[in-house]
Amino acid sequence: MALIEAKKISKIYETGEVKVEALKNISFDIEPASFISFVGPSGSGKTTLLNIIGCLDKPSSGSMFVNGTDVAALDRVRSSMFRGENIGFIFQDFNLIPVLTVYENIEYPLLMVQNVGEEERRKRISALLKDVGMADQGNKFPDQISGGQKQRVAVARALAVQPKLILADEPTANLDHASAYMVLDIMKKMKKEFHTTFIFSTHDPKIVGEAEIIYTLEDGELKKRTAVKKSKKAKGGKHA
To answer: Which domain covers residue 215, as residue numbers?
Structure first.
């Protein structure tokens, strides 16, 4: 069973008498434990599509099934509950809370979204800090760590609620080359370990090179689906 099934999704924004068709009759399926990139120029509809998948926006028409639930049909309260239980988010600007430590930033969704008990919180956070190479950084604040470290914390925070799906909007845009590859390697490891699906909206060729499937959007339309075969010898692989 597909984790995500998009069926004839359209999105129209209206400003006065002006209508902008951000998405036009888009359909696709995404399987569990996938590494997917949506690519296209600015204004192609990538972020709008991620927002609809993530229950942050509603389509004007069509249905969007995530883990068997049509999220387009959920009201605001049910959308928030579904999002908290099933979806993690990673942003290009990290979105860490500056007054909380690294540990507390990862803990935050466990307290505010899932109300996980203290012992289980400690267990999850300690394991995630170790997984992302930040085991000795838990007491530091965001302004005391590098951009690459901040994004590793953001990955750990997104994984803390053990979601089936993580949505990442330009997650490497503010990272240098080495940090970007380190974060990507961590996400690939997490995908393999937890069977989490990662969906990226990106211009970054580093992410595109690591994707298993690439969806190309132009002017709100899905133009192409490319399955990528990985070379065992070359990092990032080559297109078939």
So the answer is: 32-58+67-227
